[in-house]
Structures are given as structure tokens and as C-alpha cells.
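Appendix C. Worked example: Integral membrane protein
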Amino acid sequence: MQTDTIRGDGRYEPSPPAPQAPPGGVARSLALGAAVAAGAMGAVLALTGLDSPLRAPFTLFFLLMAPAGALAVALGRMDPLGRAVVAGAGALAVDLLVAQVMLALHLWSVRGGVFAVAAFSGVLLLGCALRRRTGRTRARRTG
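Step 2, the predicted output written as C-alpha cells:
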């Protein structure tokens, strides 16, 4: 509902239009929530060592999607297709780099690999959040 106001000095001021929901917003949110839940379940199953037939696919999903999601957030200004391709390739590179380093140091374990990928993804997301927050603060001070 749009309401118009008349200011104290007699000028007419229309209210801004209500924000519109993006097309497919609900379906996209549900799919994103399901993906996060599946990835979190994979990490929990791998870190706790519970025996389940879903442990391998959910853990693989986590190992691919956690770094891909973090890299996609870091590449926010790219077009969507290019961002998806670069984030997917970067996720594979992160997983291979973690495995190579752990094998070279004789520290290989499934739990350690899942933890290292989760730590990398979390640090990358935290860095992006801090960068955006400080960027807004600087913009407000100068603007």
C-alpha cells in the first residue's frame, strides 16, 4: 500500500514504492536452505564419524559447495555464469590443495580435511563480510 504525505510546508511528497520480491525468490531461498542443510549435515557426519549411507554424498557435497559458495561471494561483481564456473574450479583447486598439503605433511585424515576446507571457507566468508562492512563505513564517512 502506497501512502502519500503532505509535509508541514505544504509540499506534496509521494512515498517510495514498496520493494518488489525478486522473481523466483521463494524457490531460490528454499533451494539455498536445502543446500546449506545438506552441506552442514555432510560436515557433521564426517566430523563425528557416524556411520550412515548418506555420509559420503553429503560430505562430498560439503567439500565442493563450501569453498565454491565462499568463492562465489568473494567474486560478487562477476556475471553469474562466470562466477559459477570460477567458483567451481576454485573449489576443486582448494580441495586438491588441502589434500596435497595434508599428504605432504603426513597429516591426512578425513576429519582433518573437512575441518581444513571448512576453516578456509569460513575465513574467506569472514574476510568478505569485513571488507564489505569497512567499505560501507568509509562510504558513509566520505559521503
